[in-house]
Write a structure and sequence with these properties.
The complex is a heterodimer. By secondary structure, chain A is an alpha+beta fold. Chain A is 36% helix and 26% strand. Chain A is built from 13 helices and 27 strands. In chain A, the strands form 7 sheets. In chain A, strands 1, 2, 3, 4, 10 and 11 form a 6-stranded mixed β-sheet that branches. Chain A starts with a helix and ends in an 11-residue tail after the last helix. Chain B folds into 2 domains: 61 residues, DnaJ domain (Helix Hairpins), CATH 1.10.287; 78 residues, Up-down Bundle (Monooxygenase). In chain B, 75% of the residues lie in helices and 0% in strands. In chain B, α4 packs antiparallel against α7. The longest helix of chain B is centred in the last third of the chain and has 28 residues. The radius of gyration of chain B is 20 Å and the shape is globular. The chains are: A alpha+beta, B mainly alpha.
């Protein structure tokens, strides 16, 4: 709408209205929601709990989430490990619930039907949103949602879809270690180079960041989006079943064993020996686990995370001695064996003075507050894309177009050509990953560019553009240069509904439930109209030179009509007059935007690059 | 608009102050990054996305000596030279052979990496001299050699990474 384009960039057109923003950490094991109140971050509690277990229980009567789930039920857990994935990407034996697959898409069987990982995640997000709505007794403007830095495009897109489904306005997806660094920088006002080691319930990330004067610059990131605390539990569980020759017959037994393993692991965070009694097949067993045994079991996993740290340092072109501090994030970093091995590797004390469970949500809340335009904080966050993006070329090989660790947003174009005489179609297969062969990477999308003019092999030129936005989400477009024939696709994971459909559905339900909410009251409309008049008049006074006299006369005429409409107190008339003014000023607004870009790019601050 | 123009430099120029470049980069991103427009109209968000992407792309190219040199050739429409000096052809073969022979010897691989890095830096100096003299034919062939050395460095590093 032209109305918004006339206001100053990034500033709200409704300064009188507060915007409630949230930072959401949608975790594998636990989720949190935080906000900014009076300039400081705050966790929004669920009763007495800061943490909301990321569990959903479906029954014929109701859907329960987190702390409200009754004991002895069998809720869906760790759904984050499935989101944005296909059946080939997961280990079905480790699930404590039944799944079904349709076209490789995963669905969970529940008493009320099949639910996708997006559906289930959106139940958790709805719960968090509800907590915030109750807390403020007001509407939520928007949220920053965190994702593991090493999430691929499909996993990010699915997370965003889950948020939209729960009715949240997603201001940004940000990476979990980056969010932690924001919270950490906020508390400590530090500058230097930091490694963020983030071991959560189901994911592991490491990011190397530079902090200076309010600039948070991610240099490199690495990780494993299916390695987390759950895997340490599984090692203990396998050790128990092996040592005690236990056969698992059903999901309830698997859940009991998982809980036992988790409890043993948690005990080892405060003592050197843990014990737990478990009853299996009407038999009571006492399990004793020492930290030495646990360390032996876990060594391989720990080494995997350290290998990721090495890769991140390598990509950043740093030595481990270049790192000023190592920040520990995620509940799993409470394990003493993790701390021991990291200390050994870095030869440094670890920074864990902030609660490792809460730091991500707090960082996200800070960023949400800034993105809503309500903060004077001049902080700038520059993040990177975790995985390389490319297209398939002849012979199952990947042609890389955007290398990993490129600062986002980023757009790159590459030209391809036909390999047969008279070829009129070309398939473009988009992949993500670091391997040379197409089949070893994650396939994101395939599309076909048609109507290429029939020319000798190598004569047609097809330009493929990859655009990665600030959420790290990819859009690919292809253009045949001689004809200008374009194809554009938003890369979508192969699951359920797309963004647009979800929006339509939401709007429909909203419309039906509460139709008159769509009609703004006369007083609201008058305030808006006044503001539009004021902004447009200001803009005309300042930038009249950008448009012709005919254009500016037309805008002034529409302003007068709107003023007349206001006098009539007829909402219909006012609405029409606002629309007419918007239409008349679209091209003016665009010219002002272009002009502001020009002046930003040629402003006085940029002539100071020394030519030596 | 070329990448140099983005940073307010009128003509493609090899000798630029990288600290200034970085400072300007941060200033430009502070004005243009999509995060500054997260609550603005869709149109403004799109403009910010395109602008910020362009700035990132330009910075990535201009802040790297070799990429900048290659880009200057592109701006001046000078093709990359196909002719490789005989001396360098021999050097190339020697390097490749040496990598094959010491495929899994960490010590030797590290020595080879040092040697390649030294060679890269020597050639970079030669490149600078050519730019000072404005000798574009030589620049073009030197860029070619540097690209080979850079790719070769990555190859050695990948091998080393696989061993450790």
């Amino acid at each position: 709408m032209a109305l918004l384009q006339i206001s100053e960039p990034g500033k709200s057109t409704e300064p009188h209205k507060r915007k409630i923003t949230l930072g959401i950490d949608l975790g594998t094991t636990n989720s949190l929601v935080a906000t900014f109140v009076n300039g400081s971050p705050q966790i929004i509690k669920d009763g007495d709990h800061n943490l909301i277990p990321s569990k959903v229980d479906y029954s014929a009567e109701k859907i329960s989430v987190g702390n409200q789930i009754e004991e002895n039920s069998l809720p869906i857990t760790s759904i984050k490990r499935l989101i944005g994935k296909g059946i080939d990407d997961i280990d079905v034996d480790e699930l404590s619930f039944d799944i079904k697959t349709i076209d490789k898409n995963i669905f969970v069987s529940t008493p009320i039907g099949l639910k996708s990982p997006v559906d289930i995640s959106s139940e958790i997000l709805s719960k968090l949103k509800q907590l915030a709505t109750d807390y403020f007794n007001d509407e939520i403007y928007g949220a920053v949602i965190t994702v593991p830095a090493y999430f691929d495009d499909g996993q990010r897109q699915a997370t965003k879809d889950a948020a939209l489904k729960s009715g949240l306005n997603v201001l940004r997806l940000i990476n979990e270690p980056t969010a932690a660094a924001l919270a950490y920088g906020l508390e400590n006002n530090k500058s230097g180079t930091y490694a963020i080691y983030d071991l959560g319930g189901g994911t592991f990330d490491v990011s190397i960041l530079k902090l200076s004067d309010g600039i948070f610059e991610v240099i490199s990131t690495n990780g494993n989006s299916s390695l987390g605390g759950d895997d340490f539990d599984r090692l203990i569980k396998d050790w128990i079943t092996h040592n005690h020759k236990i056969k698992i017959h059903n999901h309830l037994q698997l859940q009991a064993l998982n809980n036992c393993a988790k409890s043993l692991k948690e005990q080892l965070s405060v003592s050197d020996e843990a014990s737990q009694i478990i009853s299996i097949d009407n038999q009571e067993l006492e399990i004793v686990l020492t930290s030495d045994t646990f360390e032996k079991l876990s060594l391989e996993l720990i080494n995997q995370t350290i290998k990721c740290v090495k890769n991140a340092l390598y990509d950043a072109n740093f030595n481990k001695d270049d790192i000023d501090g190592v920040v520990m994030v995620g509940g799993s970093t409470r394990m003493p064996i993790i701390q021991k091995h990291l200390k050994q590797y870095f030869q440094k004390e670890l920074l864990n003075n902030l609660n490792p469970d809460e730091v991500v949500a707090i960082g996200a809340a800070r960023q949400a507050h800034i993105l809503s335009g309500q903060s004077d904080d001049d902080m700038l966050l520059l993040d990177v894309t975790p995985l390389s993006l490319g297209v398939e070329t002849m012979g199952d090989l990947v042609e890389r177009i955007i290398p990993r660790n490129s600062t986002i947003p980023i757009a790159k174009a590459q030209e391809f050509t036909t390999y047969k005489d008279g070829q009129t179609m070309m398939k473009i297969h988009v992949v993500q990953g670091e391997r040379e062969k197409v089949s070893d990477n994650r396939s994101l999308a395939e599309f076909i560019l048609k109507e290429i003019p029939p020319l000798p092999a190598g004569a047609a030129k097809i330009k493929v553009t990859f655009q990665v936005d600030a959420d790290s989400l990819l859009k690919v477009s292809a253009e045949e240069i001689t004809t200008g024939n374009k194809t554009e696709i938003e890369v979508k994971p192969a699951h359920g509904m797309d963004d647009k459909k979800i929006r339509e559905m939401l709007e429909d339900s909203f419309e039906n439930a509460n139709q008159d909410k769509n009609f703004r009251s006369l007083s609201e409309l008058q305030v808006d109209a006044q503001q539009i008049i004021e902004l447009t008049e200001k803009a005309i006074n300042k930038d009249k030179h950008l448009i012709t006299e005919i254009e500016s006369d037309e805008i002034l005429k529409k302003i007068q009509e709107l003023k007349n409409g206001l006098d009539s107190k007829d909402t219909n008339k006012i609405n029409l007059a606002i629309e007419a003014l918007n239409n008349a000023s679209i091209s003016f607004a665009e010219k002002r935007m272009d002009n502001s870009i020009q002046s930003a790019l040629s402003g006085k601050n940029i002539n100071n690059i020394k030519i030596k | 608009m070329n990448f140099f123009n983005v940073f307010g430099i009128n003509q493609p120029h090899f000798f630029i102050d990288l600290k200034d470049l970085k400072k300007t980069y941060i200033e430009l991103q502070k004005q243009s990054h999509p995060d500054r427009f997260a609550s603005a109209s869709e149109h403004e968000q799109n403009v910010a996305l395109l602008k910020s992407s362009l700035i990132n792309d330009a910075f990535e190219v201009l802040s790297d000596d070799l990429k900048r040199a290659k880009y200057i050739l592109e701006c001046k429409e000078i093709p990359l030279s196909n002719a490789t000096r005989n001396e360098f052809l021999i050097e190339q073969m020697e390097l490749e052979e040496s990598l094959e022979e010491n495929n899994s010897d960490l010590q030797e691989l590290k020595l080879l990496l040092d040697k390649t890095n030294t060679k890269f830096n020597e050639n970079l100096n030669t490149l600078r001299n050519h730019f000072e003299a404005g000798n574009f034919d030589s620049i073009s062939s030197m860029v070619n050699e540097l690209i080979f050395l850079q790719r070769f460095t990555i190859k050695i590093k990948d091998r080393i990474n696989k061993i450790i």
